[in-house]
Amino acid sequence: MADTRYIFVTGGVASSLGKGIISSSIGKLLQARGYNITIQKFDPYINIDPGTLNPYEHGECYVTIDGVETDLDLGHYERFTGIQTTRANNITTGRIYQSVIDKERRGDYLGKTIQVVPHITDEIKRNMLILGRQGNYDFVITEIGGTVGDIEGLPFLEAIRQLKWELGNKAVCIHLTYVPYLAAAGELKTKPTQHSVKELQSLGIQPDIIVLRAERDLSTNLKMKVASFCNVDRDCVVQSVDMPSIYEVPVKMQEQALDIAILRKLNMAIGPTPSLGPWREFLDLRNKATEVLHIGLVGKYDLQDAYKSILESLQHAGTYNGYKVKSHFINSEKLTEENVDEQLKDMAGIVICPGFGQRGIEGKIIAAKYCRENDKPTFGICLGMQMMVIEFARNVLGYADANSREMDETTTHNVIDIMEEQKNITHMGGTMRLGGYQCDVKNGTLTHAAYGKDTIIERHRHRYEYNNDFKAEFEAAGMDSVGINPESDLVEIVEVPANTWYIGTQFHPEYSSTVLKPHPLFMSFIKASIEKNKNN
User: Fold this and answer.
1) Quick one: which of 302, 304, 193, 185 has its CA closest to 239?
2) Per-residue pLDDT at 419
3) What pLDDT, on the 0 to 100 scale, is given for residue 2?
4) Which H or E run contains 155?
5) What is the predicted pLDDT for the residue at 83?
6) First to last CA, the chain
7) Can you spell out the DSSP letters for 388-450?
8) Beta partners for 436?
9) Dmax over Cα atoms in the chain, in whole Å?
10) Which of 78, 382, 413, 460 is catalytic?
């Protein structure tokens, strides 16, 4: 078993500073040095997981291969490092309390009074250490959601305080703060950082390294001031300035020797600085791309974090195809037969986005019809695929009332229906078809050409499925079922071979795209969009 070291990443001053990107970058840099790493996120909110949260509340819900709904930062962890996260990589306050209460009900505590310290903090510590104890990891990087001072985050910080004491030189704390620029004064201000560190120190934690998030370069004097006032070594103050792409961050962190500072704090050998060859090649391709490809995202959440993995997957595929992808959000609630041409005609390709519920579905159906009839490259994901099926049933098969049981329980043409095992479920959270499932891909199809293999495993997050009762009619009319789950016989992928590129997937391929391994379906979709756009 590896002699595991632990890196704790906390945040101060403001949320959304990019703790997930910094954690992912640290993971990438240590990985490049040959270390086996994993990254976990501890979220202080009381929900068991983000599965029941509105995307406006918490952005995208990311699904792990083992079928757990998690924070979107786990997507960054996987995209940057290529690791596969699991249930153990995302823990919430809700999960912690649920576990402690279950133990109390079983009598595990032998009549003790259950308290935040030690019972809640012990459970947090157990979860912080579990990956290091069970996996062969050199480093476990633990990101704490929220900011220092949040009342719900206090038990997590107390757990870190205890672990830093217990682990000694096998643990470091990295604190990410914000250095605002006051335009009226023409100055960058370090006082918020000083207050944030003071707050952390008041909880018994002295940060070893401070990462300063800022919109502009910080002077050496300013960094020395932070080091002096926050009791941190001068070479342990690192800046994280706005970059054109999040994928530039690991390179910038390496240039400032963040990985060396971590290794030195842990009394580990430094060794030569890795070249980050493939990563730099990706950045080079991205920077060299000059032509822009316009892709429309038809969805109902006007928030980039709601479709984070899709946006990043499009970027990966665009880069490797030599293009910069510019994504345009198209609100499906406002899409009509009258304005669809105006909204979609200038897009090289269209993604019909996933989601849940009635709101905005008719706009997605209108978009699917427009794209199918105008032979525009179209990628339907999960609910997007279902809307492609419904549109085809209405306008090709002639079933005017065709719908999903999710939207209309009375429809006589329920081309999308609820799975049998989902019918009696009463709890919403964590009860969908979730995680990796096998799919057999039909030879001679665009999908098979993209994957280059007969069997794939992709991640799911849905309750409703393609209704096989209508399968023969769809295939006779020109919508093929080209991907089938061998165990359940459920249709996973549909394709209209008469079109240039018109594919819908019941699963979420965007969860599997990484910087160094772009997803084959996104690669194929972008390539088709480029070719079609050139010929128009």
Assistant:
1) 193
2) 66
3) 63
4) helix 154-167
5) 95
6) 58
7) HHHHHHHHTS--TT-EETTT-TT-S-EEEEE-GGGTT----TT-SEEEEEEEEEPTTSHHHHH
8) 459
9) 75
10) 382
Sequence-distant (≥ 6) Cβ neighbours of residue 386 within 8 angstroms = 380, 404, 416, 464, 466, 504, 506
pLDDT recorded at residue 451: 97
Return the half-sphere exposure (C-beta side, CA atoms, 13 A cut-off) of residue 321: 26
**Catalytic, out of 78, 123, 391, 510:** 510
| Exposure class string for 175-198: b at 16+ Cβ within 10 A, else e | bbbbbbeeeeeeebebeebeebbe
Q: Is 382 a catalytic residue?
A: yes
User: What single string gives the DSSP state of each residue in 377-394?
Assistant: -EEEETHHHHHHHHHHHH
**Cβ neighbours of 496 (radius 10 Å):** 23
The question of whether 510 is a catalytic residue gets the answer: yes
Kindly tell me the burial class for residue 256, based on how many C-beta atoms sit within 10 Å of its own C-beta (0-12, 13-18, 19 or more): middle
Backbone φ, ψ for residue 299 (5° rounding): -155, -175
| Closest CA relative to residue 91, chosen from 58, 128, 120 | 128
Mean pLDDT by 10 residues, the chain (536 residues): 88 90 98 97 87 68 88 94 94 95 91 93 96 92 95 96 95 97 91 96 97 94 96 96 94 97 96 95 96 95 86 97 96 95 96 86 96 97 95 96 87 83 50 82 97 95 86 96 93 96 96 96 98 84
DSSP annotation of 60: P
Residue 110 class from Cβ within 10 Å (0-12 exposed, 13-18 middle, 19+ buried)? exposed
Q: Is the dihedral of CA 501, 505, 510, 515 positive or negative?
A: negative
- H or E segment at 529? helix 520-535
The active-site residue, picked from 58, 316, 508, 519, is 508
Q: State the CB neighbour count (10 A cutoff) for residue 251.
A: 16
> What sign does the dihedral 78-82-87-93 (CA atoms) show?
negative
Residue 529 confidence (pLDDT): 97
Structural contact between residues 381 and 310, judged by C-beta atoms closer than 8 angstroms? yes
Tokens of 359: 């709101």
Q: Model confidence over 40-78: pLDDT tens digits?
A: 999 998 887 776 666 657 678 888 999 888 888 999 999
- Cα angle 337-343-345, degrees, rounded to a multiple of 5: 100
Q: Which of 320, 249, 244 is nearest to 282 (CA)?
A: 320
Q: Write down the pLDDT at residue 417.
A: 87
> 173 - beta bridge partners?
8
